[in-house]
Amino acid sequence: MDLMPAPDSPSAAPHGTTLPAEDPLALEAQVCFALVVAARSVLGIYRPILEPMGLTHPQYLVMLALWQQAPLSVKDLSSLLQLDPGTLSPLLKRLESAGLVTRERSTSDERLLSVNLTAKGVELRNEAAKIPAEVVAKLGMPLTEIKQVHTALLQVIAAAGQA
Amino acid sequence: MDLMPAPDSPSAAPHGTTLPAEDPLALEAQVCFALVVAARSVLGIYRPILEPMGLTHPQYLVMLALWQQAPLSVKDLSSLLQLDPGTLSPLLKRLESAGLVTRERSTSDERLLSVNLTAKGVELRNEAAKIPAEVVAKLGMPLTEIKQVHTALLQVIAAAGQA
DNA sequence: CACCAATGATTGGTGCACAAACCATTGGTA
DNA sequence: TACCAATGGTTTGTGCACCAATCATTGGTG
To answer: Which of residues 4 through 63 in chain B touch A, CB cutoff 8 A?
Structure first.
């Protein structure tokens, strides 16, 4: 038996859908909770797809950035991916030891680290090409809705960027 | 100077808005990227608000769950928050040493851990009451749009739950 | 009653994520 | 030219997040 009355009866909610959300501190009322859970859920879809390629999702994002444009400095990647340099530093070392990227100081400015793709790294793009469609298929949501979510999220990012 | 041509000219994009997204591997085309960045951005809004209360966002979510209903077992929290028990276990110990919750085995079933609020934990709810409004204000997005994002995210969660 | 598969939680390992401290290089400027 | 603030990365420390392995308790079943 369970420890508590019943997880699905906050007080007198009519049904599964959260209509009134009278309590601002109710878990179902938290947009950020939905945001975090959605992110984790979708990452969970990527995981088994990326794992055979030897990539985590953050690493995949770095590769996407480099496939679009290389070389890039840590600072470039940091601003493109909105990630802390302190996060990228070890991540890039792992990509290097996986043989996907090279890390060398820029000759013109020794402060900059020039991150570039290896042949193997370039090659991997062919395999990655099928990922987006695979994820969309697994998610099983109509493309129009996905697009809507995307633009909505961009608004959230823009709004949060102001604050 | 920079290492690369220019971060803002993938090839011939008209302007800031991403219209065609011809390349499925383009960073701007990745919904999951937007999802992850949005989540991180909004968490960044919560951080300075929660920090003076001594809470991280995951800890805040656990408190929200307990304020709605207590006691809860680790399993209950795990299913409510969609979090691994292995993640919750040390998190709950930190909440315990912060004096906000108690952790004791259930008397009826020694396998279950009964997580309950302390007086201090109950008390904290008063302070937390102002958080949602504060976050919404900082985000500066109209409430209707926020609601829309919320329902859209619930759809994503539901879709990802199938897969 | 004695075993045993299932359940619930903890532990250990890897990899983000962020903040703060630190370090090297650079490009002014006194 | 000799200093010095700014810039770009790395390191360290804390806290998720997930997985796999482990362990104790429980509730059947032979």
So the answer is: 4-5, 7, 10, 23-27, 29-46, 57, 61
CB contact under 8 A, B41 and A157: yes
Q: What are phi and psi of B102, to 5 degrees?
A: -115, 150
Every domain of chain A and the residues it spans: 50-129
**Residue A4, C-beta contacts closer than 8 angstroms, at least 6 positions apart:** B69, B70, B71, B72, B76
How is domain A50-129 classified at the architecture level of CATH? Orthogonal Bundle (1.10)
Q: How far is CA A133 from CA A151, A157, B24, B125, in A?
A: 19, 24, 8, 44
Residue B153 predicted with pLDDT over 90: yes
Residues of B in contact with A80 (CB under 8 A): 7, 27
Contact A140, A130 (CB under 8 A): no
Residue pair A34/B75 in contact by the 8 Å Cβ criterion: no
Return the number of other C-beta atoms located less than 10 Å from residue B22's C-beta.
Answer: 10
3-state class of B72 per DSSP? strand
pLDDT band at B20 (very low <50, low <70, confident <90, very high): low
Location of structure tokens 């400015």: A109
* Residue-wise pLDDT tens digits, B47-82: 999 999 999 999 999 999 999 999 999 999 999 999
To the nearest whole Å, the CA of B97 is away from the closest chain A CA by 22
The alpha-helical segments, DSSP class H, found in chain A are: 31-50, 57-68, 74-81, 85-97, 119-128, 131-139, 143-162
| Per-residue pLDDT at A20 | 53
At the top level of CATH, the class of B29-129 is: mainly alpha
Q: Which nucleotide is nearest to A85 (CA to C1')?
A: D9
Is strand D less than 7 A from the beta carbon of A94? Answer: no
Specify the 3-state DSSP secondary structure of B101.
strand
The string of pLDDT tens digits covering residues B108-130 is 999 999 999 999 999 999 999 99
The pLDDT value recorded for residue B109 is 96
